[in-house]
Prior knowledge:
By secondary structure, the chain is of the alpha+beta class. It has a single domain (3-176), classed as Cyclic Phosphodiesterase, Chain: A, CATH 3.90.1140. The protein contains four helices and nine strands.
Amino acid sequence: MPRLFTGLEIPAHIGQELSSYRGGLPGARWIDPENYHITLRFIGNVDHSVAREVFSLLGEGRRREPVTVTIDGLASFGGERPRAVFARAVPTNGLAELQSEQERIVRRAGLPPEKRKFLPHVTLARLRDSSPIDVASYIATRGQFPKLTFTARRFVLYSARDSVGGGPYLVEAAYPLG
Length: 178
């Protein structure tokens, strides 16, 4: 059963810039830059017939314009039990509309609705046993984060291989924007 999700690829030059934030946080397992992405819709483990249906339906989606993405800072998920450090992407109408369309498509394939609110981001590290103080200090000392902007000209259907999270991710299909 493949584990699938849709997302936006991060261009190599943006990934290189984001990778400069690796290190300096106890308990962090850093994601390799080639696995950086912005998840649009997590699909999960599905059987091959559902995977084929999702693949087909995504190709039938409405043609959308390319999406401009701006990454503007660092943050974390998990509060008192931090579980990830990420680079935050500015929420835009273009991103929200693309994500909403994919939500509708995945639901048409018979999958349940996503329960989490869409927060566009690039996961930089998964955390294990990192203290909230260490995470807050890590983010505070990197406060001069330059805005990084790129234009996404396609979205992709990724598959994730069995791992502890963070890749490797494979592009199974690409769908143009514009």
